[in-house]
Structures are given as C-alpha cells and as structure tokens.
From TrEMBL:
UniProt KW keywords: Glycosyltransferase, Transferase
Pfam families attached to this UniProt entry: Glyco_tran_WecG
Protein name (database record): WecB/TagA/CpsF family glycosyltransferase
CDD domains named among the record's database cross-references: Glyco_transf_WecG_TagA (cd06533)
Organism: Shinella kummerowiae
GO molecular-function terms, A-Z: hexosyltransferase activity
Signal peptide: none
Length: 269
C-alpha cells in the first residue's frame, strides 16, 4: 500500500486492518506542507494510537472514516503492533501534540489557520499561544467545541469565508474524525487535522510530560499519574484490550495463511 502526493511517496502498514503511513519526521513535514500549499484539493490527517484503535475495533463507522483519511502513527502501542505485524517499529512517533506545532514552525510560507474545538477560553488562549509560537501565520479561532451540531454547516461557512489554508479540529476521538468526514469538504481548507487535546496543551491547561519521559514514549503514564480518575479506564483497561486485539489479529492472519498454504499444497497433489 502506498500514499503519494507530489514528490512524497509513503508506504502504509496494515495495523489492525487500517493503512497507517510510515513516514519519518522530515517526509511527514514535507508531505503536510505540500498538501497545505496546493492551489486546490484537500487532505485530512488523523492520528491512530492504542485508544483510538480500541474505538475503531468496536465502531465500524469510525473505521470507515479513518480509511478515508490519511492516518499517522501515534504512540508506543502502535509501534508494538507494527513490531508484531511487520517486525519493525514506525520510523517516527507522529503524535499530533508534537507534530502540529512543529509543522507550523516548519512551514515558512504564511498560512491562515482556523481552530475549532475545546472550551472557548481555552480556544482563545491556544490561538494566542500559537501566534507567539509561529507569528508569521494567522490563527483564527472559529468556534469552541460545544456548539449545536445542527449548526455545523454554519460553522463551516465561517471557515469558508475566512479562506483558510489549514483547519485544526479538537473534539476528541471519534467525534472529531466523524465530524470532519461529514461536514468538512473541498473549499474549507487544503489541510485538515484532527488534533484531540492539542489546544489544552498549547493553552497550558494540561502539562506535558518532561522531555525525557516523552522520548521514552511514556507520556501516557505521566498523564495517568496526573489524572488517574479520568484516565485510568483508557490506560489500565485500554492497554490490555489493545494488546488482545493485536494478538487476535496476528493469530487470525496466521490461520488464514495456513489455510492458504494447505490449499496450495492440496492443489499440487
């Protein structure tokens, strides 16, 4: 499986039946910049981690949405799955919390960036901090994430009128990916990213783990210790469930291959 855009060609790995891009940081930046600066068309980037994968395994509508988007790998869990299925980790951990701010630094051409999601006060602080982070871009907070969903088309008309290049949507998974799939289309932005809790981090509402912990890909453990009541179910229960899905998918593939081999051998008799 391959994904191509201009000069960038990315192979994709099967992770629980979902094609996931295997790009390093440099190629991921180049790919995102290229689609963001095209004169037409639209690319939607989502991120898959262990929690999102668990959601995908029980929500076929969510899986179908992700299959229509470009998916980047996020976190140690997806690397474990890649090792089990393909014998190697992904070239880079392209989690949205790190990737999006770094991408905005990487793109030197001034962009108009729209923001939708989270609480209003957090949204405004995130927009201001983004302006300080990359002042050559224009950041436009369109709406918090608590608007009446019946008014989604009105929200997107505001995005269209703003003539933005990049749209960031922070509503949490799977809501943000499904909402983008239903309401965001060509003419709204060339590059659209579902960014989860990014605005909370950028606004300073949620603290990032120290850099050393992030390099070890243990930020999930740091966050669990910071917010055990809210996150224990996702990590304490969710991580074993994810590993169960990985092993079940691996074994099912082995069974299918064995049957194919047996059939091939029978045909030679």
């Amino acid at each position: 499986m391959n994904l191509a855009s201009g000069n960038i060609v990315a192979s994709q790995r099967d992770i629980l039946g979902l094609p996931v891009c295997e790009l390093d940081w440099a190629d991921a930046f180049a790919f995102a910049e290229e689609v963001a600066t095209m004169p037409f068309g639209q690319t939607v980037i989502a991120f898959i981690n262990a929690n999102n994968a668990n959601l995908m395994m029980r929500d076929q509508d969510y899986r179908a949405v992700l299959e229509r988007q470009v998916v980047f790998p996020d976190g140690h869990g997806v690397d474990i799955a890649s090792m089990v299925f393909h014998g190697r980790k992904f070239p880079a951990n392209l989690n949205g919390t790190d990737f999006v701010p770094a991408l905005l630094t990487y793109i030197t051409r001034p962009m108009r960036v729209a923001l939708i999601g989270t609480r209003k006060t957090t949204l405004m602080r995130a927009a201001e901090n983004f302006r300080q982070h990359a002042p050559w871009h224009e950041f436009i907070p369109i709406s918090d994430g608590f608007f009446d969903r019946e008014k989604s088309d009105e929200i997107m008309e505001q995005v269209r009128d703003a003539k933005v290049d990049i749209l960031l949507v922070a509503m949490g998974s799977p809501a943000q990916e499904k909402w983008i799939d239903r309401h965001v289309g060509p003419g709204h932005a060339r590059l659209v990213l579902s960014v989860g809790a990014l605005f909370d981090f950028v606004a300073g509402d949620v603290r990032r783990a120290p850099l050393g912990i992030r390099r070890l890909r243990l930020e999930w453990l740091y966050r669990l210790l910071q917010e055990p009541t809210r996150l224990w179910r996702r990590y304490i229960l969710g991580n074993p469930v994810f590993l169960y899905h990985v092993m079940r998918y691996k074994l099912s593939g082995m069974v299918v291959k064995r049957r194919q081999d047996d059939t091939a051998k029978a045909g030679l008799l």
